[in-house]
Batch of 3 targets.
Target 1
Amino acid sequence: QRVTKKSKYGNFGMMITEEGDPFCLTLERTYLNNKPEESAIPEGEYLCRHKISAHFGETFEVTGVKDRTDILFHRGNKIFDSKGCILLGTGLVDNTITESARSFSKFMLYLRNDSEFKLIIV
């Protein structure tokens, strides 16, 4: 993931594949000193693992974030749709990401044979 725009409306970024190809847009909350359920993830390298969430179903969890758990990839359009998780979308309109359900489905299909992957946030 590469953050491309930081604003009071959240951190808008782009998910990039290992091959360097753009994959989808991302939206996280703004960075608030890594405060659980309110902050973006600090820059760094993390291992994401397949998880079945009671609320979101099949997804991936970002692990290894100091003092935080349950950081998931899921559907949503605005930062208030997230409690410190990563939302996925295809476009950006009025500080919201669009087509989140479609992007999330594409994300899960892309990773269908993987139980984990490395996430680098810069």
Note: The beta strands are 2-7, 10-16, 22-28, 44-53, 57-63, 71-74, 86-89, 91-93, 96-98, 116-121.
Target 2
Amino acid sequence: MDSQREKKVPKTKESIAAYNKEYFSRPDVIARAKVRNAQYRERRRERRKAYKKTEQGKLAERRYITSDKAKLQLKAAALRRNYGLTIEQVEDMKSKQKGLCAICHTIPKHWHVDHCHNTGKVRGMLCGSCNMGLGLFHDDTQRLKDAAEYLNAV
């Protein structure tokens, strides 16, 4: 009777891992998993939409959007996307400028990243007025010199 049956091999972590690796690499198993995962994601998306329509979901969304964590994440994403900077790099630039605007040397209420529009190179941190002034003069040094001469002439 034993000769007709295969001998049972004791299961070890290695034999189970080898079996799982072989099993989960089979094309039919991968295809079923893709379908199942897509269905799961769709159900999850629908549940999330339904939750967001409830009063509790609306309150949770409002709470998250106004949270400091969300604001910091949005700020970090914008700095990375627009200038290729991290929050640490921006704080480092501010400290090198001793917490003052690089042009007017005042303490800004809101900081702005000054960068060259042609090369994209970041120059420093400015207050809103100085940043807007450079932008309105299109970063043109000759226009700025002409404006200084005009102010001195009057």
Note: The two ends are 114 Å apart (CA to CA).
Target 3
Amino acid sequence: MRITIIGSGYVGTTIAACFAELGHEVTAIDIDEAVVETLNDGRAPITEPGLDELLEKHIGNHLTATTSYDAVPESDVTFLAIGTPSNENGSIELTGLEAAAEATGDALADKSDRHLVIIKSTVTPPSIGAVLEPVVSKGANGNDAIEVGMNPEFLREGSAVSDFLNPDKLVFGTRSAWATDRLHDVFEPLIGTESSVVETDPETAAMIKYANNAFFASKISLVNDLGNICKEFGLDAYEVMDAIGLDDRISDRFLRSGVGWGGSCFPKDVNAIIAAARKEGYDPAVLEAAVAVNDRQPRRMLELLTSHVALEDARIAVLGLSFKPDTDDIRNSRAIPVVQSLLDQGVELAAYDPVAADEMAALFPTIEYADSAGDALFESDGALILTDWDEFSDLESEFDAMATPVVIDGRRCINRRDGIIYEGLTW
């Protein structure tokens, strides 16, 4: 099929490459000429395992990038994959998505054949009928051949390509059987015994995405709360969670306690659904508590550090800056509040991350960014582990080069051993 994708950020780039891998003819559209040029060179504007390989394979074959909307009326389906960042009150900012929706409608104004416009962006349920459908219609001068639907994404940074090609579920939110059938055609190579297809309306489809992420975030915060209690009792939270994870009503996924959740999805989506609920007059107390627990974890990590190290004139190594391994994304990384707090106290910092140093340097240009974990640890008075990169589990002699071998592990990615003062955040 012929597919156009508006927006070449994290989601747009990933789904463009993956749709091309499924055999579709894909045109990626973005207003940023530098992003378009990067894609047409076969390179991804983001760090994501497997993505560069797909782009190199399909650019110039099944996939092209452009700043023009000319391919939209010639396509069978258009996906809107524009970011919806958070406003100060937690609600989502729709300006960019509205502009793309109107431009898409304008490109389809003279099309007589039916055309499906699918919202891939994460949006609250009321915004579909109240904002986005009218905007598309306005751009298209009321062309009733255009239908708007919702197909939320469930991609995890660091495994997005695999998640797309091996989905647990596909959610089709539409208002007609024709639109549902069209989405079945698009995703037909992925529909089999291993994935479930949920057919519903656009608003319910949008809510499924928020419910998904709110549940995961709340589960992690509950585990962190229990982990904090275990730490106070002198117990290993991981031993406790290994046991409760054997219950099939709970499962062992998202039971790793630590410094908390970050990234572009959980914080934004939980805050957005909280703001949307408040607007309707409902106080979502459990979700608010999940956010509060998450915000508290970096502070607890610093409290453990200060119980062993006097921060005045100290040099502290910060290992891991991205919000999770296998990505350079620092959005809502737990390293940000940790670094900010230490800087506020006048601490000398040496930070290291395999891929995210440049991104963090844009926020904190004055701190030292080491070329290796060993360089960051050298003669430091303490170390904080904030991202569970695999290479950190292999550190041995590097800890011996510390001035004071105090290690506070927020991700349980190194082993306790003789010669270092080791504190796990919840174990």
Note: Residues 6 and 29 are 5 Å apart (CA to CA).
